[in-house]
Amino acid sequence: MVGLSAQQVLQKRMDTTANNLANMTTAGFKVEHLVTRDLTEKPATASDSPNEISFADAWMLQRDFSTGPIEQTGNPLDFAIEGEGFFAVQTAAGQAYTRDGRFTLNQQGQVVTRNGDLVMGEGGPVTLNATGGPISVSREGSISQDGQIAGTLRVSNFQTPAALEKAGNNLWLATDEQPAPATDARVVSGFVEGANVNAVKELTDMIEISRAYTSVAKMIQQSDELRGSSIEKLARVR
Amino acid sequence: MRALNTAATGMQAQQLNVEVIANNIANMNTTGFKRQRAEFQDLLYQNVERMGVTSSDAGTIVPTGVQVGVGVKAGSVYRVTEQGGMTQTSNPYDVGISGEGYFIVQLPDGRDAYTRAGNFALSPDGQLVTEDGFTVAPGISVPLDAVGVSINRQGVVQAIMADGSDPQDVGALELARFVNPAGLEAIGDNAFLETPASGAANRGQPAAVGFGYLQQGFLETSNVNAVTEISSLITAQRAYEMNSKVITTTDEMLRATSNLR
Description:
The structure holds two protein chains of two kinds.
Chain A: H1 2-22, E1 32-41, E2 53-63, E3 70-72, E4 78-83, E5 86-91, E6 94-98, E7 101-102, E8 104-105, E9 111-112, E10 118-121, E11 124-125, E12 135-137, E13 142-145, E14 148-152, E15 155-157, E16 165-168, E17 171-173, E18 180-181, E19 185-189, E20 191-193, H2 199-237
Antiparallel strand pairs in A: 1-2, 3-20, 4-7, 4-19, 5-6, 5-10, 5-15, 6-17, 8-9, 10-11, 12-13, 13-14, 15-18, 16-17
Chain B: H1 2-26, E1 36-42, E2 45-49, E3 66-69, E4 72-79, E5 86-88, E6 95-98, E7 102-106, E8 112-115, E9 121-122, E10 128-129, E11 135-136, E12 146-151, E13 156-161, E14 168-172, E15 175-177, E16 185-188, E17 191-193, E18 202-204, E19 213-216, E20 218-220, H2 226-258
Antiparallel strand pairs in B: 1-4, 2-3, 5-20, 6-19, 7-8, 7-11, 7-15, 8-17, 9-10, 12-13, 13-14, 15-18, 16-17
């Protein structure tokens, strides 16, 4: 049973690693690793087994929020955040947050994400004049066009960003904590933040998981053989 | 195990990435070509253990929970409408746009198409047409006895006459702008159609506010950068390999399970 619990956890670790590697080229993706813990079970009576049994259990995710590589794209509506913080996005399901700053304009000239969700500025969506001149963006996230500030991108931060819930489409949802304006964030235009996945770390993790899995399988097999041979011996004694 | 499918989505994504890069490299010398970029998004997450649930009787809560992602998907293939370089051709009917805007071309079926490729020519009856013979809007005909044309920055076309008289105004080229040029639909032959995503065309005179100006005798080259494309190709190939490694490793784990008995 202990072996089985270990295998289940190893499978989940493998799933997480596979997801990290699959998202190696996803903008703003944050790598995560499964943290396991012991679940100690006391035997019913001391005579059953002298030792405590501990099961492995998937406990929580360790999320790495370090900034990914920032790549130049040449598109003025691509934004990256240097430092901590998230862009605020208004989706049909409510407020969401993202580190993926690849925005575009919709028909009304509003700044939207690639999925068409409105990107929130300080005080509502940011609307640009489609027929106006080129835009420029300050480090604080204010977008100006033709010498006038059209809006300022809202950058929010959380005390424990690891507690955010991933919702897919590069979006995060707030859980218990309410967002606060980010203090240590600079917005750069014309750049996109890549995933902070370290391929070497993930591949070595994967090898380790696979080896551990195989050896647990061997252990299960051996304990099965042990049980089988002891039953055989007991039968012979009779 | 989810890892098998997750890695498969990763391989599909990288395959798309390589296809897009291949098209960019193939069009490196296409006039007015705008490079594309495959963009990815993470897929849904499965909550194994929800964040914020109580983890003990004392009221401590799980800070981050356990969410297992199921892979990646192609979010969009985005066209980067950055300005390409200008090369001098000295052909009087070659026109490059420096800045925003598209030439408007009338397709045979009556629709308008939009293009950055300004390699025009004259039809047998003196009409200014594209390489494929489609009329360039708003329709400019050069007199048959003209010896040359001059196109200025504002798009005004003048015919230079053989008898040395003053050049004649024969029309002006128009440009179209879009709210979201990345939302245009490419139909091949360097041409695009407007879509609900791009917004309606906003027509105007070249060199007006927000519009680019024209340069006669120049063509806009593609904005593909070979070095960037090759390095993206290497990254994509490696990512593809790593995802296939995940599949073989998962397979080994599954084999270990099936060998139990």
